[in-house]
């Protein structure tokens, strides 16, 4: 992920902002059971990008990846709508507790830009995506960074059209969604009323996307490492913030790791899992193929 990339990450203040004042109220108002639902993974299982992750001789990358991580942020679905048979293959290759978090097709977000012509494509997208059945996690919509608040009516119509049986998270990138308090409040309330997650993006060059406003009982975090030693240190702040939200009632954590150059995403994910296990006593699996490298780093 090159979005938010900077040439000198060492000069960036990576401190997480304070919570939006309404986040605690949202969490307190959506408390349920004490059961935590935690998904941690990478954005892809492509061997070329993550060649150091797979043991020599690995023939099926998804089958191996899903034996090591419990989820994937499925970016491939942004570029095309796959046939139903492909989703069934993905389903069959993965364990019972594995979850896919697919990105909505760019035909909907970037080409049609949520206009009325996008709705038939939404129907087609969901028809095939539903083949993931119980392994389908939250679907996420990522809007272009030139899609601003002047398109508010399109957002409202899309949210109203979206079938509520499919969990949805949305990522807005245009700065005016967050710089104008009236606009941001209207957006947050729309998502909150429709039980949709507001995606938090932690990337070096766009610190404004860390608005720290949850709109339902889900922290959907897209963490972007800068290929810098601070990539690991930054995870400590996320552990602390998630622990705070957990004490306020957070139950659903979906944390996906990217890098500007996907070299150590699995290691960063493993580091995050290890920190969670130590903090909360959870037993999330740390990938076996990373144990030697992980032990050297930590």
From TrEMBL:
<dbReference type="InterPro" id="IPR036520">
    <property type="entry name" value="UPF0759_sf"/>
</dbReference>
<dbReference type="InterPro" id="IPR002763">
    <property type="entry name" value="DUF72"/>
</dbReference>
<protein>
    <submittedName>
        <fullName>DUF72 family protein</fullName>
    </submittedName>
</protein>
<dbReference type="Pfam" id="PF01904">
    <property type="entry name" value="DUF72"/>
</dbReference>
